[in-house]
Structures are given as C-alpha cells and as structure tokens.
Amino acid sequence: MNYRKALLSLIIGLMAGSGIAQIPQPFKALHSGKFVGKPIANSPDPLSNFYWNDPKAADSLQIYTLQPQKYSFSPAKSFTRLNKEIHVNGAGDMMLDFAVESAGWLEFDCDMDLTSVEASISEYNEPAVFNYGSQNPVKTRAVTKYGKSYRLELNDLLYEGVRFAWIHVRKFSKPFTIKNIRLVCQVKPANYKGSFQSDDTLLNRIWYTGAYVVKLNALQDFFGAILMERSDRHSWTGDAYPAQAASLAAFGNYDDVAKNIAFTSNQDNGIATYSIYWVLSLIEYYQFTGDKAFFKRFVPNADKRLSLAIKQFDSVPDLAFTGWDERLGGGFENGNIAEARFAFRMLCLNAWKKFAKALEFADDQTLSAKYTATAADKTKALQEDFTKYGVHAISEAINAGLSELPAVQKQSSLIYGDRVKRLSYSPFNQYFILQAMSLSGSYKEAFQTIYDNWGEQIKYGATSYFEVFRPSWNQILKVNDAPPNNQCGYTSIAHPWGAGVTKWMSENILGIIPVAPGFASFNILPHIGNLQKVSGEMPTPSGNIKVSIDRKAGIFSFAVPSGTHARKVGVPLFGKKISELTINNEKKSFNNLKSDDEFLYIENLAEGNWNVSVKYTQAVTVAANPVDQYNYGITNFSQDSLTKGNWKTKYGSQGFKLFGLNEKLPSFIDSVTVRLPKTVVVALDSLPAMAAKSVLQSEDLSHLYYIATRDPLACLQTMTLDLWVNDNKEHKVSLYFLDADLQNRRSSIEVFDAKTFELIAPVQMISNYTDGKYISFPVKGAVRIRINQVRGTNAAVSGLFFDQM
To answer: Which side of the chain, N or C, has fewer Cβ within a 10 Å radius?
Structure first.
C-alpha cells in the first residue's frame, strides 16, 4: 500500500473547503511549521516530514485532514464517483479506506438535507462495535448537520481510531451528491529527531510504526493509552512506560514526557507493577535528559513507592494485573498467578538497583546506599526455583541483573530457544522480554521475535501497534480483518504500549546507550544481526548521536555531540579478525585495544565526527539464520459443518457435556471447569425454522441451550474451559458452535497447557456456523480452551465431546 498517497491528499487549509468552515472544530489547523523535504521512507505517518518551530508540551493539539485512498460501493449501481464527488443514485453503502490509522473523525459535505444517512468508523474492515461503557459502543450513528456539512460524532472528544469509514444511505428518494469526504485528524506537535534506516525495509517500518503509534495517542496534557473510545481512555502509568521510552528515542520531546510523569505521579491504577513502572519511567527520563532537578523533585515519590515494594517483596500483594498473557493470569482474571508474582519480585529488584544508580548521579548517596543494600540483601536471601519461572519472570530476573546465575542462564536458554515460549500475547510485555534477551546475548532470537511480533502486525496491514497479538492470527485472518477479542475486551489496534520496540532498536541495533544522565557519556555497541547497512540517530540534550555502519565496506561512522564523550565504541568483529584499523583517515595500531568475541573497543572518543574503517582478515559475509519452526503441541484441527445436531452418530462415544443440560464425562476427565460464561436458554419456536436441525439432540427438544461470552461487558468477551485430564494418553476433543439466531457470529479458540498456561496450538477461527459447526483436535494432558468473540453478538458454544483418536 502506498502510504505516500495519504500525504499527497492532505488538505492543509482546513478552512478552504466549501463546508469545513461551517463545522466547529476543537483545534486550529496545522500551524507554526511546514513540510520539509520528502516524507520519511517507511513511516506510516502522513506528517513525517512536517516540522514545527520549537514545539512545546503546552502546545495545543492541531488538526489536518486526509482523503480516502480507496472506495468500495455496495451495490455498485447506487454510487458514481467523479474525483472527490460521489453521486448517490440509490440506497447502499460506501466503504472508505484512508490507508493509515489516525486519531480523527469523519466529515463530508452535501447540498441536500440528509435525514436517512448514517456513518460508521473502524480500525479494521468492518464497522466497529466496542465495550459497554463507552458513549457509543456501536460505532455507527446518524451524522450531525452543520449547514451543508455533516460529521459523525461518537463521543465528546470526537476522535476515534479510524482507518476505515462508511457512509450508509438507508433510504433513497432522489439523487444527491456527497463532496469532500475527509477524515479530520488531531495531532500533538512533535518533530522526529531520532531515526532508523537499514537495508531491511520491514525493520525500518517497525521502528517508525512504533514512533507513529505514540504520536497518535499523544493528547493535550498526557500520553493516552487507548485510541478507540471503549470506556478506558485513562492515563495508565504502566502503559506509559514503553510509550514514553519510544517517544524519547524518536522525538526527544522531553517536556512532553516530563509532563506525563508529573501527571501520573499520584497514580498507579491500582496495579502494583504499574507503580514500579512509573519509577522506571522517572529513571529513564533522567538518563535521557540529565534533568537532575526534575528527578530530585520526584525522588520522595519514587522512594515511597519502592519502600512499599520492600514490604511487598516477601508478601506479594494483590497484583490485579501484570499483562494480558495467559501465563500472567490473563489480565484481571487471575492476576495473582505464580508467574506474575515471580515477575513482580524481580521487577522490584530491578527498580531498586536502577534507582540506586540514578541516585548516585543525583548526589544522594544516603538513599542510594539504602536501595543498594536492599537489592543486595534480597538477592542474597533468594531461594528461587528458577525452573518454575516462565518467560516473563525469567526475563525480569535477567533485567534485575541475575543473568550470571547458572539456573537463570539455563532456564532462559530453554525458553528463548523456543519460538513459541518466548512470544508474549502482549507487545507491552514483549518489550521487557526483548530487554532481557539482549542482556543475555540472545540477539538472533530477539531479531526473530521482533519479526514474529511487530513484523507480523505490519503484515496484517497495521499502521500502528496492537494491544494484543498472536502471529498465527495471520493464518486465519485476511489483511485488515476484525481481530479476535480477548481478556482485554475489544482489541485495540492502535495502542502505544506496544511501541517499546522502537527504543529497543535504537539502543541495541544502533547500540546507543547512555552511561551518564543526559548522555554526558555513552556507549555505542551495535548489534546489527544480518543487516548489511544500518544508520540512525538518538536525540540528546546536547544534540544527536549519529551512527552509520556499512558491514561490507567495513566503515563505521559516529557523531559525538558537543559537551559529551563516547566512553566505549564497539567496532563489530562479525566473527573475524581485523588486519587494519583507520580512524579519521589515520592508520592506528590496535594491538593495545581491548576486544572480545563481539567487538574491538575504541574508548573515550571526544566530541566530533569519527570515521572508522577496518579491514578484516577474511571477507565479511552474511549467512541467513535458520528460522526455527513454531513448536506447537497441537497442529491437527478439523471442522465439520455436516453433522449438525445429530451428534450421537459421530461424537461423544467416550463422553460429553451438553452445556445447560446434562453431562457424561469419561473416566479420564476429572472435571470440566467453565469460567466467565453466561448460560442461555432459548425456545426453539422463537428461532428460524432451520435452527431445529442444528440444535444438539437432547431430552429437551423444545429449547436451545448454550453458553456464551458476556459481550459487550468490558473484559468479558471470552470464556474458558479447563479440561482436567488425568492420564497421559491422546484423546479427541470436539466443541460444537451454533449461531441459531443468525447473528453472524465469528469466534476463535486458543488451547493452553492448563498447568503451565503455555500456548500449545495456533489460534483457530470458527465462522459461518449458522447451521452448526464442530471443531475437533487431539488433547494430551490437562488443557485450557479459551473461546473468544470476534464478531457477532457473542461466542456461543453448545456442547463438548470426547472420542478416541
């Protein structure tokens, strides 16, 4: 898709259109800046090359407009397109694709009074429906008239996450023309100061998409946490941690980040880990800016939070939430699961150590000594069984500086070596895993994980990052299809907490890491994987640190800003030995320079531009890394839409459970635990006649019984079945889905190990089950089956059956 087209369709003079002036807008049009040069390659941002004059945190939001890049009409005969005008010849629907996710609202002009026209918006290719509690959970509504212009107004703040929009002509009396269809988008002024470019366009896109999703969610006074209005547009302290990290690396908008830290300083959202993330955000801000006065202003706040964590370390509190990953308790469903408690303790260790280090730079030696001693004492007293740690907890242990422990090394190696185990359901939690992978030296696996998580989102069609994501979605979804919903409720696909990968890439691929606050001193230790060329910049208060690497030519260029110095610059060895070293065109002896398996180190480079070239004893080549397969325990799924309600002829030979009716469980099943469903009983005579054939045969032939998710209640668009299998044999399990009341239901299922909560199968989709559909798969050992609503009223399941394989 050509995202540059979206830029070309910008209407900068918002008041110039025939109808725009008639609509009251909450913000002024783009101002105090201009477009400079060409758009940034691989950035989805329509304003990537718009530069404001000295933007500040106090600046108001501004607005700009985008025009549709694609039109679809149904039926085609009802609409005729002529440039920017749509001639309406009959009732129907027009679908508009604006090519890029935006924070905006839909408007258009028409000379005729429209009384039977509605509009819809969505992040994906169907009109959106969201959680109960939002002002308009159904994102379809009659348009509001302003003179000869119309606007879709869904909430008091107007904006929603919009990629697609629809105009619905419900009734037709005479022809009319719709003009100037536009998406009015809001933006907080912020200039790109950081950058990332390489010979891998997907990696480039990943970096810039992370930057863009943060910019999308930047509000007037704080960093937002959700773009769609679904009742949770709060300032979430934990969500802000990776969002602010990406913002520091991409925009260097320090005053915006400081404003958000101050705004959230009295919050923790009732989540223990989020309180710790706030402290880490404060420390990171200090590392990037060197703003000692701001840091010291909030030291008492951080001390209070971390002092509480000392008390909580041995008696872990109600965590409420650590992530949406099943291994962390599935959001708010079971927030105190063992993995979450392990991760919390390690997160405390990490924060104590980093806070102590920051306090040293801030000249508070007394408080620094307190937290240094606390971390040392708690580490010494650890009696952890690290074999019980999953990917999140073991990653936090590494982030806390425990990577030298043999037990941690062994467990992390087992987990990071497995392509499924090292993937989190949440890009938010994946960021912390990435941090640990780099600290443990697992760069090859980290690169693949970036492709698997963020790269696959882009392959889905994303121009921003998701709240939750599984790569196997791309096997069951078409580009821009509605994604499965989960414990989070209706999935946001423009969530800034997924942006941490942008900062990770700047710190690890470019290799730019602060040593002293404000980058007064820093290291450049690039890990470029199989890239041939990579370059980029990291903003600092003293100017940009620049890095450029040409692997084949052996050329490494660095720019050290005025008033700073590069303590250590690593020239990558790529597994070779160096025969010649030249620095700024002068040959140098390197026999006395330090080196290891990764780098030849050049130390204490002063401000200025440094051009380093090397010759290797052997040619530097790149061999593609073999990609491990996804190691799923279950891959054999089948679906049956022919048997319908006559289950006794094919299913349940060893046992069954008819939800709401009766059960006859086999001897190898101790129990079936059903969590979070509602039980529904519907009289058959109230359903379409065709439903009778598809209702499961039972003693009661007059009613349909099933369990369903509790849509649209927030966080209840999912339910689980825990099958407690007591043997180690393989058994066939089947679920029966029925959409008897014709609600166009689509559902997905995930299968986990019930004891470890590891995902053991790719996500499956069940659609078109108006006449009933069975999905069957083998099970060995206890499993959890999570059933998710995708579209339709809810997910509806009527029966569970057991058979021999």
So the answer is: C
